[in-house]
C-alpha cells in the first residue's frame, strides 16, 4: 500500500475508532465496494458461460445459475469463518499453514498467482468484448484492442495506485445502471429475442445442469478477497476488521447473487440466447431491455470500466504478492530480491512486468475471447477454496464442533466435484499444472532459503505493504 493510500485508510480508521459513524461508513463503502469489484465483474461472462455449457438450452439456465449461487454462498460461509479466525488477514494460506503446517501454504499461494494472471486476462478480454458490442466495427481488432487496454491498465498501475474509492465508484455505477436495465426489462422491454425457452426433452435436465454449473463457477472468483484485504485496515482493531470483512462478504452475496439471478431470469423472459461473435449475452440482455439508446451505452461503459477495475486490482495484488515473497533486508525472502524493487510510486515494477507478460500471453492465446478463458479461470482459485475448506473442517473437528465440521466437509466435497468436472474438460488442466508447478517451485526455494518463518502470513503482508 502506498503512503497516500495508507494515510487515507489510517485517517478514516482513526475516525472510526473515535466513534464517528459517518467516517466509518465512508471507509466501509470504499473498502467493501472496491473489494467486490472482481466478483461483481464476473457477472459479465459467467451467465453466458453457463448457457454455452448448456448448449443454448435457455430453460435450464436459471436452475444452473441458482445452483452456482448456492455454492457461492457455501464458499462465502467458509470465508466468513476465516475472517473470524484470522481478523488480521491471511485467508486460505494462513488456514492451511496452521492446520497442516507451513509447507501447505504454497498450494493456495500458487493458486492465487495463477488466478491473478487469469483475472487480468479474462477481465481485459471481457472489457474488449463490451467495447466491441457497443462499437461492432472494432471486432476485427479484438486482440490489439485487448492488448491496448492491458497496457492502459499497466500504465495506471505503473504510476501508482489511485486508491480503492475509484473502484468502489465503478462498482456502484455498474450496479445502479444494471438495476435500471432490469426494471425496464421486466416492465417495458424494448424487444425480445428468438431463443427457445423450453427444455429439449431429448436430454437429461439434471445431468445437463450438473455438468454445466462448474463452468459458471467463475462467478465465485474474488470471494476470497475480503478475508485477505482486511489486512489493509491496519489501524482498526480485530473486532472492526471482522465486521468489515463479514459485512463485505454479506454485501458480495447479496449483490452478486441478486444481479446474477435477476439477469438470468430476464434472459429467459426475453429469450436471449447465445450471442453472435460481435456481442455478449449480457450486452444482448441490456439491448433488448433498454434499446440502443443512452442506457445501453451506459451499461456497456460501466461494465467495461468495472472489468478494467478488476484487472487493475489484480495488477496491484499479484505483483504485491511477488514483492512480499521476495522478502526485505530484515526478513529473508523466497523469490529473487529484484521482484521486490519499487519505483518512486512504490510499484514493484519487475513484478508488474512479469504479470504483464503472462497476461498478454493468455490474451493472445485465447484470441481475446473471454469465454475461452472461463474454463481455466474456474480451476486455479478452486484449489485455494478447497484447501481453505479442508483446513476449516479440521479446525472444527479439533474444537469438537461436529456440525460445523460436517458442513465444511460437504462444502469441500462440492468444491472438489466442481474442480474435477472442470479438469475433465481437457485444457483447463493447464491451470492446475501451473498452480502445482508454482507451488512446488516456491516450496523448493523456501527450503533453500532455510525455511524462513512467517510464510503463512504472506498474503496478509502482501495486502498491508
TrEMBL record:
Classification via InterPro entries: APC_K+_Transporter (IPR053153)
Q: Does the keyword Lipid metabolism apply?
A: no
UniProt keyword annotations, A-Z: Membrane, Transmembrane, Transmembrane helix
User: Per the UniProt record, which residue ranges are transmembrane?
Assistant: 26-47, 59-80, 106-135, 141-159, 166-186, 206-227, 248-274, 294-315, 349-368, 374-396, 403-421, 427-444
Q: Entry's PANTHER family?
A: POTASSIUM TRANSPORTER KIMA (PTHR47704)
For this entry, the protein name equals Amino acid permease
Supply the source organism for this entry: Streptomyces cynarae
Amino acid at each position: 500500500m502506498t503512503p497516500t493510500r495508507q494515510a487515507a485508510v489510517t485517517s478514516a480508521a482513526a475516525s472510526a475508532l473515535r466513534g464517528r459513524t459517518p467516517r466509518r461508513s465512508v471507509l466501509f463503502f470504499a473498502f467493501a465496494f472496491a473489494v467486490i469489484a472482481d466478483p461483481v465483474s464476473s457477472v459479465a461472462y459467467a451467465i453466458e458461460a453457463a448457457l454455452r455449457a448448456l448448449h443454448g438450452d435457455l430453460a435450464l439456465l436459471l436452475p444452473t445459475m441458482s445452483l452456482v449461487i448456492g455454492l457461492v454462498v457455501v464458499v462465502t460461509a467458509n470465508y466468513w469463518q476465516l475472517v473470524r479466525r484470522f481478523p488480521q488477514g491471511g485467508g486460505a494460506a494462513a488456514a492451511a499453514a496452521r492446520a497442516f503446517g507451513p509447507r501447505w501454504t504454497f498450494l493456495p499461494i500458487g493458486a492465487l498467482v495463477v488466478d491473478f494472471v487469469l483475472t487480468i486476462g479474462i477481465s481485459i478480454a471481457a472489457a474488449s468484448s463490451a467495447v466491441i458490442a457497443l462499437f461492432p466495427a472494432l471486432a476485427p481488432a479484438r486482440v490489439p484492442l485487448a492488448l491496448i487496454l492491458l497496457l492502459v491498465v499497466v500504465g495506471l498501475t505503473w504510476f501508482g495506485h489511485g486508491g480503492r474509492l475509484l473502484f468502489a465508484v465503478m462498482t456502484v455505477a455498474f450496479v445502479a445502471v444494471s438495476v435500471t436495465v432490469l426494471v425496464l426489462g421486466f416492465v417495458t422491454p424494448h424487444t425480445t429475442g428468438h431463443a427457445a425457452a423450453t427444455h429439449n426433452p431429448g436430454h437429461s435436465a439434471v445431468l445437463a445442469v450438473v455438468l454445466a454449473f462448474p463452468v459458471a463457477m467463475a462467478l465465485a472468483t474474488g470471494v476470497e478477497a475480503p478475508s485477505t484485504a482486511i489486512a489493509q485496515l491496519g489501524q482498526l482493531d480485530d473486532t472492526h476488521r471482522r465486521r468489515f470483512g463479514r459485512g463485505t462478504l454479506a454485501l458480495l452475496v447479496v449483490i452478486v447473487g441478486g444481479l446474477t439471478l435477476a439477469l438470468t431470469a430476464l434472459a429467459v423472459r426475453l429469450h436471449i440466447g447465445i450471442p453472435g461473435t460481435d456481442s455478449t449475452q449480457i450486452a444482448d440482455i441490456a439491448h433488448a431491455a433498454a434499446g440502443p439508446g443512452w442506457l445501453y451505452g451506459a451499461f456497456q461503459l460501466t461494465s467495461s470500466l468495472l472489468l478494467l477495475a478488476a484487472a487493475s486490482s489484480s495488477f496491484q495484488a499479484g505483483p504485491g504478492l511477488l514483492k512480499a515473497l521476495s522478502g526485505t533486508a530484515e526478513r529473508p525472502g523466497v523469490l529473487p530480491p529484484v521482484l521486490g524493487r519499487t519505483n518512486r510510486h512504490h510499484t514493484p515494477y519487475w513484478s508488474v512486468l512479469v504479470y504483464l507478460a503472462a497476461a498478454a500471453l493468455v490474451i493472445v492465446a485465447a484470441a481475446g475471447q473471454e469465454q475461452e478463458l472461463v474454463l481455466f479461470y474456474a480451476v486455479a482459485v478452486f484449489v485455494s477454496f478447497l484447501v481453505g475448506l479442508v483446513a476449516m473442517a479440521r479446525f472444527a473437528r479439533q474444537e469438537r464442533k461436529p456440525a460445523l465440521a460436517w458442513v465444511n466437509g460437504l462444502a469441500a466435497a462440492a468444491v472438489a466435484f466442481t474442480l474435477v468436472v472442470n479438469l475433465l474438460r481437457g485444457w483447463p488442466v493447464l491451470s492446475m499444472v501451473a498452480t502445482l508447478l508454482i507451488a512446488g517451485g516456491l516450496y523448493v526455494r523456501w527450503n533453500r532459503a532455510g525455511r524462513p518463518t512467517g510464510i503463512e502470513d504472506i498474503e496478509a503482508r502482501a495486502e498491508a505493504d
